Amino acid sequence: MRTERFTTRAQEAIVAAQELAEGEGNPELTNLHLLLSLVDQPEGVVPAALERLGVQPAALAQEAREALGRLPKVSGGAQLTLSNETRRVLSDAHPLAERMHDEYVSTEHLLLAIIEEAAGSDARQLLERHGVTGASALEALSSIRGSQRVTSENPEATYQALESRLEAPAVDRQDGLRLAWDEEAKWLHLRPSGTEPILRIIAEAPTAEEARELVALARETLERAGGVQ
Known about the structure:
Layout: H1 8-24, E1 28-29, H2 31-39, H3 45-52, H4 57-68, E2 81-82, H5 84-99, H6 107-116, H7 122-129, H8 134-145, H9 155-166, E3 170-172, E4 177-181, E5 186-192, E6 199-204, H10 208-225
């Protein structure tokens, strides 16, 4: 399994799924464990996407836990193994990321790979019962990320950190991230370059000093979140 190109949050989800399987006494790590770890991630992209689809993450998580309770259990400290379906999901997430022009596999790619898994998968069936399909999930994820591409190990926190700190009344994610204040008198626009691995930061304000301060604040916030070097 190639994990060097997984984002921080994706790796955290995989570790959480492993801990969940071990805690439940299950001999295999399955897509149900992975799905539950994705849905339970605080401020994660997956629960945000589910909410946009009208699905309550807590309700889906509860059903996932009930399904986990029906899986085989072992005792005596048996070594956890990776199920074939989860092995396929972790592998299939890479071409999914490439199709979306992303450099790292993120939590959203894991969700889409779970949905694309064989029809008999318990995790896929659970999502389908809640009306979550590949097309609807991709649409919800696209509305969250806009044109942002996954170009770092911690993209899930990058724009969210900026939105949280600056608290702009107007937010547009159609072309990167654009925050505006005072009826467009002041705005900040961040967008990844289409040809270079850089993030462009552009600002406009009533004075040049305010614009420079806005750019400096954005860069400081992104550096803390791991979005720029």
